[in-house]
Amino acid sequence: MGDRFRVILQRRAFALLYGALAPVYDRFTEWLFLGEWARWQNSALPPLAGARVVVELGCGTGALAENGGNGRTWLALDASPRMLAVARRRLGPACLIRADTRVMPVRTGSVDAIVATFPGPFIVAPETGRELQRVVKRDGLLVIVLDGELAADGSNRKWRRWALRRFYGRKPGTPPAIRFAGFDGGTEEIQTTHGRATLYIGRAISEATNQDQDQIQRGRFLV
C-alpha cells in the first residue's frame, strides 16, 4: 500500500468513525481489536492515580472518563459533536466540553494531569503544546497512549495484526522516541492480555503561573 493512498484511506476512515459511525465506534473497536482496545486505553489510568483534576483530550465516546472519572474532576474535551453526543448518553453533560485543543477553555495552572488515548495529529501541534504547558500545574502529568498492537497469538490476532500494520504503515521494532516541550518524560510499553500499549508519561518542568489561584482553590476550572 503506497503512503499517499494510505493517508487518504486513514483520513476517510477516521472521518467516518468520528462522524456518522460514532454510535458504533465502541462496538467496532471491540470487534477489530478483539477486546484489546479498551485494555490499551485503560493503561493510561494507573499513572493518573492521585490526580484530582484531569483533562482528557479527544475523549471520544467517554469510555475512559467513565472508568477513570469517579471521585475526581474529569474534564472531557472533544471537537466532534457526534462523539460528544455518544459520550453524553454515557456520562451526562456535566464534564463534557466541545473544544479545540489549541484553545482550551480551562484555567491556567488548574489541572493535575492531562491524558489522551490514541490522539490524532493535533497532539503534536505547537498550539496544543503551548496549551498543555499552560493548563497543567507545576509538576503535573501528561499521559498519552500513543499506540497499541495485538500479539501474534491465535489466527484472528495474527491476520488482524498484519492488516493493521498495513493500514497504519507500522513497521516492527522499537517505537520512536517522542518528546513534548515543557515535559520531562519518555515512552514505555505496557503488556496487556493479548498485546501491548505504548505510553508517553511526562511531568511538567515549566513553572505554572499563579494566575487565578483563588478560583482554582475554590474548585473553578473552566474559563
List the helices and strands and how they pair.
Elements lengths: L2 H16 L6 H8 L3 H7 L10 E5 L5 H6 L4 E6 L2 H11 L4 E3 L12 E7 L8 H10 E15 L4 H14 L14 E10 L2 E10 L8 H5 L6
Parallel strand pairs: 1-2, 1-4, 2-3, 4-5
Antiparallel strand pairs: 5-7, 6-7
What does this structure look like?
This protein starts with a helix and ends in a 6-residue tail after the last helix. The protein has a 7-stranded mixed sheet. It has one domain (3-217): 3-Layer(aba) Sandwich (Rossmann fold), CATH 3.40.50.150. The protein has 8 helices and 7 strands. Strand 6 (183-192) and strand 7 form a beta hairpin. By secondary structure, it is an alpha/beta fold. Mean pLDDT is 88; it is low at 208-220. It is globular and about 45 Å long. It has helices at residues 3-18, 25-32, 36-42, 63-68, 81-91, 126-135, 155-168, 213-217, and strands at 53-57, 73-78, 96-98, 111-117, 136-150, 183-192, 195-204.
